[in-house]
Amino acid sequence: MRLALEEIGVVIDGRAILDDVSLEIGAGERLALLGPSGSGKSTALRVAAGLQRPSTGRVLLDGANVTGVPPHRRGIGLVFQDAALFPHRDVAGNVGFGPRVAYLPEAERDGRVVEALALVGLAGMERRDVTTLSGGEAQRVALARALAPRPGVLLLDEPLGALDGPLRQRLQDDLRGLFERLALTVVHVTHDVGEAFAIGDRVAVLRDGRIAQVATPEALWARPADEWVARFLGMANVFSDGEHATVVRPEAVGVLPGEGAVVVAADRDGPVVRLRVREDGGRELEAVVVGVDVPRVGERVAVDVDPRGVVDVALWRPEMPGRG
Amino acid sequence: MDRDRRALSAAGRAATVVLPVAFLAVFFAWPLGAILGRGLVVDGRPDVPFDVLTASTTRDVAWFTLWQAAVSTVLTLIAALPLAWALSRFRFPGRSLVEALVLVPFVLPTVVVATAFVALLPDGVERSVWAILLAHVFFNVAVVVRIVGAFWAGLDQRLWDAAATLGASPADRQLRVTVPLLAPALASAASIVFLFCFTSFGVILILGGPRYSTLETEIYNQAARLFDLRTAAALGLLQLAAVAAAVLVSGRLERRLGGGRRRGEAARRPVGGERIAVAVVVLGSLGLLALPPVALVLRSLQVGAGYGLDHFSALAHETPALFVAPWHAIFNSLLFSTAATAIALAVGIPAAVAVASGRRGLDVALMLPLGASAALLGFGFLLAFDDPPLDLRSSPAIVPLAQALVALPFVVRSLVPALRALDVRLREAAAILGASPAQVRREVELPLLARPLAVAAGLAFAVSLGEFGATIFVVRADWPTVPVAIFRFLGRPGEANSGAAMALCVVLMALVAAVALLSERALVRRRPR
Known about the structure:
The complex is a heterodimer of chains A (324) and B (529).
Chain A: E1 3-12, E2 15-25, E3 30-34, H1 41-49, E4 56-61, E5 64-65, E6 76-79, H2 91-95, H3 97-101, H4 106-119, H5 135-147, E7 153-157, H6 165-182, E8 185-190, H7 193-199, E9 202-207, E10 210-215, H8 217-222, H9 227-232, E11 238-240, E12 245-248, E13 253-269, E14 272-279, E15 284-290, E16 300-305, E17 310-313
Parallel strand pairs in A: 3-8, 3-9, 6-7, 7-8
Antiparallel strand pairs in A: 1-2, 1-4, 4-5, 9-10, 11-12, 12-17, 13-14, 13-16, 14-15
Chain B: H1 10-40, E1 41-42, E2 45-46, H2 50-54, H3 56-89, H4 95-107, H5 110-120, H6 129-154, H7 157-165, H8 170-198, H9 202-207, H10 215-225, H11 229-255, H12 273-301, E3 302-303, E4 306-307, H13 310-313, H14 326-356, H15 360-371, H16 374-384, H17 398-421, H18 424-432, H19 437-466, H20 471-474, H21 482-490, H22 495-526
Antiparallel strand pairs in B: 1-2, 3-4
Helix pairs in contact in B: 1-11, 1-14, 1-15, 1-16, 3-6, 3-8, 3-12, 4-6, 5-6, 5-12, 5-22, 6-8, 7-8, 8-11, 10-11, 12-22, 14-15, 14-17, 14-19, 15-17, 17-19, 18-19, 19-22, 21-22
């Protein structure tokens, strides 16, 4: 199923939460909606789900206007950040809720529950009390619950936000595998760049209620639309003189034995080490090296920038300071 | 945030407000207005009853009202604090049972408590200031244990740990950490107990005899016994002003309680000498609290020099004390309480929905009947519904209406937190999964609210069963409720009458216990793990 938001605006208490947001998600496509907190990601999701009436614009499902259709008639699934499981029902009662309110025959209902729980790796957990579930289990049950009615579009609102560490990584991998296997149309909201890149076929970056850029992860990394997007993606080498802005992607900065710069910081993240080097001219650059035989802090080095990694980007100034 | 805008439509919201407001206007504002009118207007001209207000008898009554409430409050705090300490700081086998037992006196009808002290105390002391004070303590220990204990249990254990690492001795910690932290809870509990004792009616009427009366009982004496409505109304004005001041103070103190605590269970097993202290406090308190009800049951079984069920079997026969056989009173009480519960729920549910969706003004208005004191309400009913357009004086319907008004704050108070706790996202999740609004109500909201609804109904029923202050003003002589019948029996001499009062008290106690048990059942079954 295709989902489209057309020129969506949402004004709450006189404040523009979303402003002219247009997004198209093709059938079977996975879109990651990425933005800092307060950028309007969740509101966009609530508009798509029908929980928030947009002030302007339309929501289309397979080309049909569903802007005025209440959530329970949209056939869209939504996974909340902290699961929002029904405390008065067990796991099967939660997962079977959608089929139940759709008055499916009991045998089919049970079949859906078993199927959905198997999909999320919780087969056999039907009779568990939801209040005894761990955070990861609860989130899987919430996912199974959203899948059981077989929605045409699945929306996820920071589904990994309440989890941490290896658990988070595992569920992220599982989610991606599941989305690919089921060929679901997915909108996945997150504030985590890595998660957005891992899950999304395309990534839409939202800033202060507006779309800043929509692109594949590769295109986004190669050509961030402006200096704000570059910084938000985690790029440190953004230089601006007020008229032009340039981004030097860290992997394009070569660090060799030699002269001309000094290492001022080295932070290891697994196999990768992020280096900060200060050129004798005063400019500081971030570089990425791998392995264990890497320059140390204080070492003199030579810096070699690959011109293919240098990108001119648009300047960005907040139009209305303090609005975000 | 937008998600706080409840799913209620504008029309739905208006509807939830109209019914409670109309009910309060007719059955609360109008009766109080009638008291004001009777007290301040004579023959269509304004007339402030200075003569009544400045009379020495009024001064004596007001003074007694004030000091008995103050002394009762202090005694209650002293009696309750050890128990609050033991129950909030320590875990021990049977603690939840003890907590439940401590609450029992508070749900007992005032008439039962007063009669129990008549049964317990030796002749001569049974109708004295001491009896009044003791009965108030017995009644209100639960309030202090509940409020202070909950606060105490929620205090962050790490505060004491921090104080200890900073060099504070155990005594220092109590003095410099516990006392200042508990102060708001103590003040709040004290103000509530003071309000209860200030407006105490049944206890004073029964235990005070003719010698001691408070503003509350004096209103009844003037209105119902001496038929001096002007004096009664003047005293009503005084009581209204005093109560309004007390409610204001206690409301302010209660608000100071909010925020900054609730860090989970800090209770631990007692060690060493603490074990003895906790055991002495808990067993001693329970033993003292058990004395009055046990004395009551024993006296109800006492026939002459021996024991028997004679007083209970006598309830089937007509007596000169009532116009009907006493068992009629039991039937009347059940009937009235059922009707009162239905009314309180019909008004209280929409009211709670409106309050939970953010109508603070209504919240305050709904709590007023609680503060306005039952006797004031009863007296107001007497004045307001005496003649057309609403002549309810001769109608039995006036009793459940008055009782519903008294029960209403309890219904709203028990429903609002549950409604507020209803997670909006659960409703949204259900809608997303395809549930229509009707299905959301049936499949999500109702199951989640079943338990608080059962509690609210149980409370309303128990409060109505025991209601005395308002009922005594409006009840018809041939339709007595159990508390009214008890009062009538106690007012007559002889063993048969006092025996009948004791027996009826035991019946009433059993009824209240049954209701409490039933709604507690609902509580236990649905308690989330």
